Amino acid sequence: xxxxxxxxxxxxxxxxxxxxxxxxxxxFSNEVMNWVRQAPGKGLEWVSSILTTDEPTNYGRSxxxxxxxxxxxxxxxxxxxxxxxxxEDTAVYYCARECTYNSGYQLTCTNRGxxxxxxxxx
Length: 122
Description:
- The protein has 122 residues and is mostly beta strands.
- Helix content is 0%, strand content 53%.
- The N and C termini lie far apart (37 Å).
């Protein structure tokens, strides 16, 4: 399994970024694909999940209305469009599969990419 993210960077508050993730090594179209993030000194936080192009995408409360996830099964790609970014969105963003919460309510994922840094500051 390989997940490769790109598109991170620095942006001022209110700005936008578009993250991409190219997946390989598994049957992409059959699987829920997630975006998760990790801020400095904090655990993994779930951002969004998408099953198929016909299913509604689910979003974490902190990003609802600002972020949009989509997927292109022909290209094994998931996209995270992030608008109206705020300093609290600063984190390393990961494309991930098979994510769940353990008994300690910590988010864990079977596979994650190397991550892409998103920094929001003025």
